[in-house]
Amino acid sequence: MTSLFGEPEQPEAxxxxxxxxxxxxxxxxxxxxxxxxTPILRWMADxxxxxxxxxxxxxxxxxxxxxxxxxxxSVLADLAERHVTVSLHTSSxxxxxxxxxxxxxxxxTVAGSRVPMLVAVxxxxxxxxxxxxxxxxxxxxxLSDRTLAQALGELAADRPDVLIRTGDGTSVTGRLxxxxxxxxxxxxxxxxxxxxSQVYVPVASIGEVTVTR
Length: 213
Description:
Layout: H1 15-31, H2 38-68, H3 72-81, E1 85-90, E2 97-103, E3 107-111, E4 116-120, E5 124-128, H4 148-156, E6 161-166, E7 171-179, E8 183-187, E9 198-202, E10 206-211
Antiparallel strand pairs: 1-2, 1-5, 2-3, 3-4, 4-10, 6-7, 6-10, 7-8, 8-9
């Protein structure tokens, strides 16, 4: 059929078909697709994302809590356990470098380039690790109670020659004769006995001790 203007008339839409099309459109709007698995897959993806975010948040708070409990001694203990080569800057001006071999209550033993050395913890200004080394939190307790004075007392039994660097950068050399509670006694070296003298060094002033012979 044609209209009064000579154009073909459009057939009237079936009301039932219109309602069916409307229901299908609403179905697509609600689910986002005609695939019935799409809502489930979307929910699973969102759930995985939420779990991952929750795990990241949990890890962040665990690391923050550990960092808040960190101490210098426990950082040194962690580096020693992992056999990390460190470079130390000390108040005595030294730059000892090597792996931490042992820890005392107030000192560490570092594997120097030639011989191990004792470094007082209070003399450490900074600790540098190699590039790419993972961060150290340092939240573990220190187990050793041996002090620097006690360690020097044990070394004195062998009368070794030592180089001591004090906190102000002074270097003292001599034979380690005695180590008391808070002082060590060195005998200076000389070709003749009458040229030798005693040197008294307060333990509290010691930054580094290197056994030279």
